[in-house]
Write a structure and sequence with these properties.
Rossmann fold; 2 domains; 4-stranded parallel sheet
Length: 362
Amino acid sequence: MPIELQIYHSTPMTDRRFGEVHFDDIVAARRLLARELTPTPLVAHPLLSRRVGAEVHVKLENAVPLGSFKLRGGLNFLASLSAEQKARGLVTATRGNHGQSLAYAARRHGVACTVFVPTGNNPDKNAAIAALGAEVRVAGHDFDSAWDAAVEHANRTGAMAVHPSREPKLIAGYATVALEMLDQAIQPLDTVFVPVGGGSLAAGMGLVFKALSPHTRIVGVQSAAAPALARAWRTGEMREYPVGETIADGLAARVPSPETVAILRDVLDDMVEVSEAELVGAIRCLAETLHQLAEGAGAAALAGAMRLHRRIKGQRVGVVLSGGNITSNLLLKILHGELIAEQPRGAQLTEALADMEYGIRS
């Protein structure tokens, strides 16, 4: 049964604005999405908790239609547009899930949508975007170069360019994940792990937890192969970092967004970078314990919790499984052991590295 919508009244704690995202925008997004989507489950299993050494509660955003939290933002964004904006059409860039969500919502509203993807993008996600009615165009070698092509298209055609991590209405939609978790958790959560690609999910969720559960630590998790946001969070410097090979294509951002980083520096307590082997291990762990499919980005939060297992020992921990759109080929390789799920080189070393590298910010 859907959880009853909880209405949060404005208080000194909730009357907060981070950048252009206000807490009231998140409450409004939840009212809207309550008519569109069923709240996703928050589940725990003793086998998973035993592996991590903490009481782990996983938010199953792979249960959202299209298999990702991104649909929350797409629906909220399209509902906010004027008739004039809709008539212009939309253009965006994506590695997959954002493009699917915008294509789905655009079709619901009768809006033309063009989606740029980089060369070599996940073919399953490309096909899904096209099936949802968007025009798919290939440009550039990574997300950021595909975004540059999308901006050029917008300048040429007058279409509205929609960046996946800079639109306040998208962030407000994503933040409803946190409102649901707060309603669903029987006891308060000590730490919540959230994947970070462009940073919009972590920004929105962090805003909610800091307003309504300020004692809860929010930890962002990024692929070590794409560390731009983590480095920007620690230093405040907006520098590009090359993106290496990663199974977490949804986290593969080369250029940090100043607007989003500003929010993250306000609301995140920590950032951790995880290896490819740790991502593989987390995907396998979710399949073996919860029998849930997670793509690389979707498993990142659990990988972060497993990396910091000593620090969170005995805590009540929230983990966001942000998406389940993994290709069958990659999943089979992981389950058959063709991709090695390495364990940390020793709990004490892992903890020491985490303390030195990820807990310090200028």
